[in-house]
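Posting this for the archive.
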Amino acid sequence: MQGREKFKKMVKLKKEKQQAGGRTAVTPLLLGDGALGTELMKINSQKTKIPLVHNLKSPERVKGIHRRYLAAGADIITSNTFCANRLYLKQAGLAAGKNELTELVAKINRRGASLTSAAVSEFQKHHSENCSPLTAGSIGPTGSDKAIFPDQNSNQEELEQAFKEQITALIEGGIDLLLFETFSYHLELRAALGAAAEFELPWIVNMSFDRYHSTNYGTSPEDFSKLVREYPREKILAAGINCIAPDPGYRETIDRITAELAPLPLSLYYNAGTPELDVKTGKVRYQLEDSFFRESGEAARRNEPEVLILGGCCGTSPETISRLKKLLE
């Protein structure tokens, strides 16, 4: 069954369950999973400082986190492939030559997708087929200067090619849908969506707003919404925001996106809390705050759009998603 049909079937089952419980006026809710990167970073290993490397070095650890999110009740399980594109991998020093980069992009994304699919398949063996979790191939920004100036020289072409390469490998790994997340510049996101338009898989499209009404690159909620509307409705399962603090100030941002895109389903993945710098290690830490559950609960009470996807981003864990599920129920 293709991703769009699986998504529609899941939404239908959620609606029926809510109606059976007498909750007819509430927007159907799908539960996303939580962070992969910050979970993998908890593992103290010099060889695997970059979470993507775990797909190749310690795949069972990755699959184990997927299993925990499935046990927590997540309806959408995301692959460990965030930023697994050639431009990012080159800057991270994971590969140098063109052939080496091509091979590494394929390996990381195929393995990431297949680990996600395998975890879901194993989960389904012991659970009802009526509630089949979706697998989402994570696609993040390139972190490259080419993305800041996409219109210069051949930057647009290079960006699109990098995303096509990643998407091809994710599809080969057996993913249901593509999840674009943590993009801060709508022109880079346009390159990613332009690459994805050549493939059949549907999308969930998220941006990260550094400030309430814009990103660090000046992208506004309206810029984002306008970009989403450029693509056929059948391509896009949901659109929204991820990697933001669970802060009431973002409610207006969410309202602005919903006003532009409803009835398109809304996707929200809050961070566990406000990031803090650990001066001893130089690393950023996220403490789970009550505001994560408060803002998630506030979003769940919306009566528009037609479907809501709620999950977690940086600093969240399987325990966070389990607690969120109990709260929402």
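The radius of gyration is 19 Å. Residues 98-124 form the longest helix (27 residues).
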